Each structure stands twice: as structure tokens, then as C-alpha cells.
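Structure record:
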Amino acid sequence: MIEKPPFTITADILSLVERIGEVIGRVEAAGVSRDVRLRRNNRIRTIRGSLAIEGNTLSEEEISTILDGKPVAAPLRDIQEARNAIKAYDRYQQWNPVGESDLLQAHRILMAGLLDAPGQYRRTGVGVMGGGVIHHIGPPAESVPSHMANLLAWLGDTDEHPLIASSVFHYEFEFIHPFEDGNGRMGRLWQTLILTRWKSLFASIPVESLLHARQDDYYGAIRKSSAEGASTSFVVFMLEIILEALRVSGVSDQVSDQVAQLVAALGTGAKSAVELMGAMGLSHRPTFRKNYLRPAMSSGLVEMTHPESPTAKNQKYRLTIRGKEVLER
């Protein structure tokens, strides 16, 4: 008998699903998925976003260089992670979201050369750390196969909307934490797979990039759902992210005056938040972050020079590939 994961369909969830459906209609009409250049840029943003959440330091430009088969000067592990992710995102649409063998193959590709036994469930206990504190202890290793079998069976049997089902799966996957390492990037990849099977345009929507821009909120939503004993809060968060990702996916090249001002102030170099505020004559940091920096990062125009340490004292910001295109125009 299949056990249903605990979650509640709330008015907020229903409203978000409806709003996402409306935006999808506009995105499909705009032909985003048919724009080869935009698809490539969004794929780079997707890979960079998912890896950066795990501490990978490569920029979008460096990932683009690796995608072209050219060498980059960067830590070998970061390069290996990028190569693996490129291969996985090239193949992922061939996989069956409810197929365990496909799930294990995906992990084998994502973590090749990074783990001793990629593509195998963990055989030891696992704890999720953050700030020196244990936030979550995964189920015992011996129960992982049965937990995953139930989750995949539920995914194949559920009548829930794919937007909801994919988000529930994402949370439950992170809760089970079935692998020794690579659980975060696998959970994000598998939600993208589920969504792409529903609507092919999601292959061109950089949801992972938005998750990186709101990394603290992402982990906070996971912790909140764990404390509540249900994935409801995480589902709401993921639907908000998906809605935002659709809106900034490249349907329009229009940017707000504030974001355009930030792009111009950055130019072709890298600047700290203080330097940027000074260049634009701003003095109120919360306003700068809310109206300038965060929208620019969410739109994929600006990235951090040290994504592995968002609060680093030497943190600076630079234009992405897309940001440079906007600056040129």
C-alpha cells in the first residue's frame, strides 16, 4: 500500500498554481523554448545555480567555456561537478521520473569522480548541517530503499497537479536524503525532470538559478516544513520560485530602471555593494538590495564573485553573460 507524503492543499497553493498557469501561457506564446541562444543561456544559469548552492565557485562564463569544451583555470572538483552536471542536464529528459534505475543512473552521472560509489543509496546515517548546527537527521540507511520505493510509487500514482507533486517530491527526497552526497542537486534536477515531462518549456526555465538567488529562503523552507511535519510550506515556497523563474525567463528583455542603472554601474568589472551604492548615489542598503540587487540577480543579470559565501566581507558582484548582453544594448 502506497503511503501518501504529508501535505495540505491550501488556498495559497491553489492561487499560485493558477497564476503559474497564466504565466506559462504567455511564455509559450513568446516562444522562449524555441530561442536557441536563450535556451543555452538558461541552461548555463540552471547548472551554475544548482552547483553554486553546493559551494561551487564557477561563474556562468566559466561554465559556458566548459560547455564549449575549452579549459578553464579553476579547482578540479568544481570543474568535475560542472562537467557532470552538463552531462546530466543533457540527458535528463530521457529519464522516467518514477524509475528508480533512472534515478540511480542520474546520481551516478552527477557524482562521477566525486564519490567512491555514485549511483548507490547511502549505507550509513546522515545529518544535514548548517552554521555548525544539525538541522536534520535522515532516516536510518537500511530504510532508505523502502522510503524511496514508496516515494516513487506515490509519484507515479498521484493525481496531484505536477507543480504540487514535483514540489512534494523535492521536499521528501531531501528529507530522506538517500545518497551519501549530491542530494540537493539531485532533488532539484528531479523536480525539473517532473516539470519538463508536464510542460517541455521547463527545460528552458532556470528555476535552479532563482533558488540560488534565494538560497537562505530555500533552506529555511526545508527546515520549516521539517518542523511542521509536512511539506506544505516548502510547496508554497517552490511555487513562488517557479512563478518568479517563469517571469524572468527571458520572455521580455525589458528591465526596471533600477536594474538598468545597476547594470550600467557595474560595467565590465566587479564591485562590492558599497561601491555600487556609491556609484548610484544610494545610501539605504535595504532599498538597494530589494529594488536593485535582488531583482538583477533573480533576472540572471548579476552574480556574486563568491557564491559559496554569500555574506563574505570581500563579496563583489559582476555581470553574467546575459547581463553583458543587456549592457551592450
Remarks:
- The first helix runs from residue 11 to 30.
- The chain has two domains: 11-247, 257-328.
- The CA atoms of residues 207 and 242 lie 6 Å apart.
